[in-house]
Structure formats: structure tokens, C-alpha cells
Amino acid sequence: MSRLFNVAIVGATGAVGTQMLEILAERNFPVGALRLLASERSEGNFLEFKGEEIMVQTLTAESFVGIDIALFSAGGGISEEFCPIAAAAGAVCIDNSSAWRMDPEVPLVVPEVNPQEIARYVNKRIIANPNCSTIQMVVALKPLHDFSPIRRIVVSTYQAVSGTGQKAIDELRIQTGELLNGRPAECNAYPHQIAFNCLPQIDVFFDNGYTREEMKMVNETRKILGSDAIGLTATAVRVPVFYGHSESVNVEFAGRITVQKARELLAAAPGVELRDDVASQLYPMAVDAAGQDSVYVGRIREDESCAQALNFWVVADNLRKGAATNAVQIAKILAETYL
Ligand SMILES: NC(=O)c1ccc[n+]([C@@H]2O[C@H](COP(=O)([O-])OP(=O)(O)OC[C@H]3O[C@@H](n4cnc5c(N)ncnc54)[C@H](OP(=O)(O)O)[C@@H]3O)[C@@H](O)[C@H]2O)c1
């Protein structure tokens, strides 16, 4: 790529935004001007990009003049309001929030799964990045689904606090220290203590008894894999881990896939790294996935209660592949192919 692209990061000071900055630099994205945007609380702070200190500016309706690509990670309300403004100013928005994901006009993209969807950015000049738990699961499912179509998925997640953002990372650290010193834990980020605990609630409950996070996994997986026929039920759990979401996935296919075949398919799949050797106690773990871009898969077993089903364990860094890496991968394809 010889052309340079003017890039804005909305939510540049946040848990995802700071990863975006790092990944743009690591991947040597052809950045021309870089505009770092956040709330007025951060106005005047500096963030580093490739050795240069760049001042953070307050997000306004004028922030997108001259911007080619706007990476959004400042929450759904901000994306709802400002993506159309950025698009009208000529930018293409890659949005990490849930604001646009289920809009039929907006492509919902995981580059290893449905990169062809990026072409539909022309509809609204918005491309949606899926939910972090969905991204890592569909990267692992895609090669298996291509071999034998998925009928039904049962997934339980073990999600890190960084999925909630910087305030929850701080809360786990502070609560752990307080409790170890015999002092009470103060709860702000979650309705209950997260240190030394597991919370079977991520986001709000709907009338059907599922949480919004669980229903995101259902709806987004179907949209990305392009099949409303896939049955899916999810239980999303917050665990006291800083970085890296883990998932126990049970999948029933139209035909049988042996463990050996699944290993072959996953070993050859883009974005996947197999960690599957129980004799050596080798399996994916959040501590190993943190800071990495791959989706790690292991503990692959045939479901002995169902002839055409497999169980496996999937782990990825939620801030990287679950958010920032996926967005930068989309930006790269967009820049190389469409802009
Ligand atoms: N964390 C994850 O694993 C993950 C994964 C996928 C998607 N996402 C999505 O990414 C988004 C950000 O998540 P995060 O974890 O990075 O949250 P975070 O750490 O809380 O960061 C939020 C960012 O948004 C900015 N912001 C807040 N209010 C604003 C306003 N009124 N105007 C402009 N900027 C504002 C904040 O700026 P200040 O510093 O100035 O407050 C900060 O930069 C959310 O939509 C989230 O759902 C997160």
C-alpha cells in the first residue's frame, strides 16, 4: 500500500482504543494523520504512537473532516450518534459497539470468516465489529461449518473483566487487594463482588431470562455464518480474569466430524492455533492468549452423548482479536481493496 490513510480513533483512551493504537503501529498500518478522540475528560492528554506524542481531542461533530477511516470504541450511544456524522464527512466507520451490528444494511465482519461482506460498507459507510465472545467462537467454527453444516451450538463463556473496560480492570485489582487485606470489597463495575467470584450475568437481563450478551452471541453468530437455521444457546459468565475470554463449546453438525478431522481442519484454519495435547496437559489458557492475536482451540472431544457433536475449548484475547485486532484487520482489507 503506498497511499496513506487519515485515521480517527474514537475512544482512544479506553481499554480497546489503546490496543487499537498499538496494533496500528505493530502492523505498520499506512497511517497519514492520526486523530485521537475521547470525552472532554481526556482533552489535552497525550498518547504515544510510533514514538510520537499525540494529543487527545474532545469528540465533536467536526472531528471527522478529512478522515478516511474512523475506528469507534466509545460505547453504543456514541456510535449511534457519531457514525452517521463521520460517514457523512466521508469516513468509513469500523464500529466496535453493538449499535449497528444487527442493522441489515451494515456488514458484521470477522475477516477469517466473511471478508467478502466488507464490500457492503457502501450502504452506510459503516462496518460493524462483532461482540468479542462471538468473534473467537466463529473463527473456530468456520472451518468445521464449511466441512459439515452446524445444526446447534451450546456455549458457556468465562469472560475476563477487561471486556467491561478500564473501570472493571481497576475494580478487580482493587477488590483483590482489599479482600486479601481483610477489608470489604466495594462494587461499582458489577452488581456483585467479582474478585474470587463468578457472575452468571453479563449485561442486562431480557424477558426471556437470557442476558443481552447471550443474545448477542445467538444473533451475531447467525448473521456472520449466514444461517438462521443454526440453533444456539449461550450462558455468559464473568470470571476474575484480567485478559482473555474462554469458552466451552458443544457443536452438533449435520454429519460426523472425527476428532482427527477437526484437528486437521482447525490446524489449517486462518487465525486459529491448535493447543490440543492432553497427554502433555497442553490446552488453551487465558494467561497464554493475553497479548496475542490468535484464537486458541483445544480439548477437542467427540460428544459421547451425541453422534454428530464435538466439544472444544476456545480462548482469545478479548481486547485484541475480540475487538482491536479484528477492527484493524477489517481496516487493512478495506484500505487495500476498496478505498
Ligand atoms: N473491552 C472489550 O473487550 C470490548 C470488546 C468488544 C467491543 N467493545 C466495545 O468497545 C467500546 C469501548 O470499550 P472499552 O472496553 O474500551 O471501554 P473503556 O475502557 O471504558 O473506554 C471507553 C472509551 O470511550 C470514551 N468515551 C466515553 N464517553 C465518551 C464521550 N461522551 N465522548 C467521547 N468519548 C467517550 C472514553 O474516553 P474517556 O477516557 O475520556 O472517558 C474511553 O476512551 C464499547 O462499545 C464496548 O462495548 C469492548
Automatic annotation (TrEMBL):
<feature type="active site" description="Proton acceptor">
    <location>
        <position position="245"/>
    </location>
</feature>
<feature type="binding site">
    <location>
        <position position="238"/>
    </location>
    <ligand>
        <name>substrate</name>
    </ligand>
</feature>
<feature type="binding site">
    <location>
        <position position="318"/>
    </location>
    <ligand>
        <name>NADP(+)</name>
    </ligand>
</feature>
<comment type="pathway">
    <text>Amino-acid biosynthesis; L-lysine biosynthesis via DAP pathway; (S)-tetrahydrodipicolinate from L-aspartate: step 2/4.</text>
</comment>
<dbReference type="Pfam" id="PF01118">
    <property type="entry name" value="Semialdhyde_dh"/>
</dbReference>
<dbReference type="GO" id="GO:0009088">
    <property type="term" value="P:threonine biosynthetic process"/>
</dbReference>
<keyword id="KW-0486">Methionine biosynthesis</keyword>
<keyword id="KW-0220">Diaminopimelate biosynthesis</keyword>
<dbReference type="GO" id="GO:0009089">
    <property type="term" value="P:lysine biosynthetic process via diaminopimelate"/>
</dbReference>
<protein>
    <recommendedName>
        <fullName>Aspartate-semialdehyde dehydrogenase</fullName>
        <ecNumber>1.2.1.11</ecNumber>
    </recommendedName>
</protein>
<feature type="domain" description="Semialdehyde dehydrogenase NAD-binding">
    <location>
        <begin position="6"/>
        <end position="121"/>
    </location>
</feature>
<feature type="binding site">
    <location>
        <begin position="162"/>
        <end position="163"/>
    </location>
    <ligand>
        <name>NADP(+)</name>
    </ligand>
</feature>
<comment type="pathway">
    <text>Amino-acid biosynthesis; L-methionine biosynthesis via de novo pathway; L-homoserine from L-aspartate: step 2/3.</text>
</comment>
<keyword id="KW-0457">Lysine biosynthesis</keyword>
<dbReference type="GO" id="GO:0019877">
    <property type="term" value="P:diaminopimelate biosynthetic process"/>
</dbReference>
<keyword id="KW-0560">Oxidoreductase</keyword>
<comment type="similarity">
    <text>Belongs to the aspartate-semialdehyde dehydrogenase family.</text>
</comment>
<keyword id="KW-0521">NADP</keyword>
<dbReference type="GO" id="GO:0046983">
    <property type="term" value="F:protein dimerization activity"/>
</dbReference>
<feature type="binding site">
    <location>
        <begin position="13"/>
        <end position="16"/>
    </location>
    <ligand>
        <name>NADP(+)</name>
    </ligand>
</feature>
<dbReference type="InterPro" id="IPR012280">
    <property type="entry name" value="Semialdhyde_DH_dimer_dom"/>
</dbReference>
<dbReference type="GO" id="GO:0051287">
    <property type="term" value="F:NAD binding"/>
</dbReference>
<comment type="function">
    <text>Catalyzes the NADPH-dependent formation of L-aspartate-semialdehyde (L-ASA) by the reductive dephosphorylation of L-aspartyl-4-phosphate.</text>
</comment>
<dbReference type="GO" id="GO:0050661">
    <property type="term" value="F:NADP binding"/>
</dbReference>
<dbReference type="InterPro" id="IPR005986">
    <property type="entry name" value="Asp_semialdehyde_DH_beta"/>
</dbReference>
<feature type="active site" description="Acyl-thioester intermediate">
    <location>
        <position position="132"/>
    </location>
</feature>
<dbReference type="GO" id="GO:0004073">
    <property type="term" value="F:aspartate-semialdehyde dehydrogenase activity"/>
</dbReference>
<comment type="subunit">
    <text>Homodimer.</text>
</comment>
<dbReference type="Pfam" id="PF02774">
    <property type="entry name" value="Semialdhyde_dhC"/>
</dbReference>
<feature type="binding site">
    <location>
        <position position="159"/>
    </location>
    <ligand>
        <name>substrate</name>
    </ligand>
</feature>
<keyword id="KW-0028">Amino-acid biosynthesis</keyword>
<dbReference type="InterPro" id="IPR000534">
    <property type="entry name" value="Semialdehyde_DH_NAD-bd"/>
</dbReference>
<feature type="binding site">
    <location>
        <begin position="41"/>
        <end position="42"/>
    </location>
    <ligand>
        <name>NADP(+)</name>
    </ligand>
</feature>
<feature type="binding site">
    <location>
        <position position="101"/>
    </location>
    <ligand>
        <name>phosphate</name>
    </ligand>
</feature>
<keyword id="KW-0791">Threonine biosynthesis</keyword>
<dbReference type="GO" id="GO:0009097">
    <property type="term" value="P:isoleucine biosynthetic process"/>
</dbReference>
<dbReference type="GO" id="GO:0071266">
    <property type="term" value="P:'de novo' L-methionine biosynthetic process"/>
</dbReference>
<dbReference type="InterPro" id="IPR036291">
    <property type="entry name" value="NAD(P)-bd_dom_sf"/>
</dbReference>
<dbReference type="InterPro" id="IPR012080">
    <property type="entry name" value="Asp_semialdehyde_DH"/>
</dbReference>
